[in-house]
Structures are given as C-alpha cells and as structure tokens.
Amino acid sequence: MALPQLFSELEPYLSGHLQLANGLERTEIDRILQHFPYRVAEEIYQLYQWHNGAIAADTYQDGLVAGYTFLPLQKAIAEYQNLLAMKPVWQDNWLPIFQFDPQTYYVIFGTNKTEPNCSIYDYFMQDSQLSLKFSSVQQMIEVLITAYKTSVYQWCDQKLVVDEIKFAEILRTHHPTQSISVLAQLAKVETAEQLGAIADQLMQLKDRNAVPYLTPMLTSNDPHLQSLACLILGEIKDKAVIPHLLACLSTTHDYGVKLSLLSALFSLPDPTIIPHLLPCLHHPDTSIVCAGISTLSAILISHATSTVPPDILSALLHLLEHENFQIRLSSGGILCRLGDRTALQVVAELINHNNLAVRLKAISCLAQCPLPEARALVQTCLSDRDDNVRLAAQSVLNSLI
C-alpha cells in the first residue's frame, strides 16, 4: 500500500488525541530545506505533506511514535542548526525529525540525491549510540497501524499506553531479517566490546530468542560483559531469567554488576524476588541500598501488595535511621505505604528538608499512606512558602478524595 493510503488508515487512531499541523506544499518543504545541505528521501516529502509535525512541538506530544514528538520541519531545521555545534557528536547530514528529549532523537540521513526511501535511526547523544529503528517511513507507519489495530497502542485518559513486549514482537514481524542478523552476531559474542556493538539493537528488538545466549554471560569473569547482559535481559523482560539474575546477585561481589542486576530485576517486578533483596538492604554501598529499595518498591506497587517478610520489614525500619536522607526517604516511602507510624514521622521531618526535590518526594510518599495523620500532614503544606510544595500538596489531596 502506498504511503498516502497508509496515512489515511492511521489518521482515525490519532484524531481527537494528537494535534498535528496541516501538511506543507512541496514548494514550501523545498524552501525550508534550503537550510539543510543535503537531499532528503521522497518519503520525507510525503510525511511532511501529510502533516507538518505536532502543533505544540515545544511541549511533550505523544501518539505518533510513543514517547517522541513529531517535529515540524521548521523546528527540525532549527534543531539541526543547534546540534551542528556539537560535531563530531552530531554529523552534518543528520536531520532530526522526532525528539524524545534534548539528548535523544530519531534522525534520517541526508544524501546527495533524492532517494525513494530512508531509514530512521534512534540516536542517544550522551553515549553516541545510533541504532536502526525503522527501515523506512512506510515501515514505521505500517508498524504504528498494526500497533493501534491490535491495541498494543491504545489511548487511556488522553495518554498513550503501550505494551512494550508486544510492540517489540510487531517490530520483529515487520523487520524479521534484522532480528535474525543480530542473533547470528550474538551467537559469536565473546567479549563485552562485541556485545556492546549490538546491545542497542537487542534492547530494541526484545527478542526472547536472545535469552539462551545471554544467560551464560551472567557467569562470565568479565564484569562489563555481565552488566551488559543484565541490561539487555532487563529490556527483554522474560521472567524465565529471574532465577539466573538472582543466582548472579547472590554470588557477585562487583558493585557495578549488582546495580545492573537490580536494574534488570526492577524491570521484572515479581514477588519471588523480594527475599533475595535482603542483602542489598544491608549493603555498605548506598547506591546498592537505594537500588534494592527501588526494586522492592516496584514489586509492591506492581502487585498492589502490602505484605513483606519480617526480615525485610526489620531492614526497612533500620534504614529509617540511615545517615543518607535519600535512603531514609525511600525506605520511609515503602513503610508509609504499609501504614507504619515510625516511617510517617521520618517522612514528616523530611517535608521540611532544605532540598526542594526531597520535600516534594516526601509529600508524594504520604499520598500512599493509609494513616489519617498523613492527610493532616499534607494539609499543613498548603500554606507553605514555596509554590511547588503547595501545588504538590494540593495534587496529593485531590488524589485522596
């Protein structure tokens, strides 16, 4: 099916949810592209003839590609001109057409002549990571139509909700050769450098066929290889890997690997993980303690449970006296959710902390507390001197109504 027909098929799924600007005439596209010293593919002309990006492109606009704002062509050129100052991090033939944040873009490559199609790449500037996202604009639109048709993309209260695992399956269906190629490379990986070269694609594809190759890497003597394998497994989100991750967590002494393991387990919030987090809560390194608390919190929230083993509860209560305020706040947040009055007192004290971010986090912790005293504490913040604190308190009170 030709692109104009695909645009027509996609349009109803966006109507009423995403505000897109009217398309541009070809002559206007050419005029704007005078500031880009390369030719763009015919598909890009068709894309901007359909719509000239999101109307409110200076604010977050979800819905075409989840998480990324569709840039109007004028703004794409303005971004391009600003990014050129960052050479060699940014190449002069890269044109951003979607933006996630100031560090992350979907880019196309300009060429010396107008080609019919162009690939779309995901680029994260901080790590200079460039990975293929879609092989063409047409493939991108086909993937989006399939995602909407199968409810992998669906709107809920004007927010786009995405089933990431099923979306990865759609990507593999529309681009199976990419998955086959990456798995073939994965089978030959022996070093962290080799795995790093394909890590981005593996995390994008989320192909569970990669799991049998990755789990043996958790027992490697190379902590960099172990950490990379953890991060990829966390993105694939196959619960079958949990025993492998927990086995590595109990044996490794490398702090970086432990953090990577906890990050992966955070992505797989399963109650069977909880007892294995106890050593992390007693760990001497504060970053590991914080990661352990975050993973525990993710599990409790995901399963809407208010029950934890006695030894975990005891560890959390002990952490309320930790010298690190972030640990006191994080452990206090979990205990507040469990209705613990000691934790409520600790969190109440942090409401008056000199760091605004800590104060706002303390107020958000009280939103989950079933104790009536929590509401009274939030109400005292309505007369705070700081506008941000007052707004946060009002938001919490509204959620408790």
Describe this structure in words.
The chain is of the alpha+beta class and 401 residues long. The chain has two domains: 3-174, SMI1/KNR4-like (3-Layer(aba) Sandwich); 269-401, Leucine-rich Repeat Variant. 54% of the residues lie in helices and 10% in strands. The chain has 20 helices and nine strands. It has helices spanning 3-14, 26-32, 42-50, 73-83, 137-149, 164-174, 176-186, 192-205, 211-214, 223-236, 242-251, 255-266, 278-281, 286-302, 310-319, 325-337, 341-350, 356-366, 372-380, 387-400, and strands spanning 20-22, 51-54, 69-70, 94-101, 104-109, 120-124, 129-134, 153-156, 159-162. The strands form three sheets. The protein has a five-stranded antiparallel sheet, sandwiched between helices. A two-stranded antiparallel sheet has the order 1-2. The chain has a two-stranded antiparallel sheet with strand order 8-9. Helix 14 runs parallel beside helix 16. The radius of gyration is 24 Å and the shape is globular. The termini are far apart.
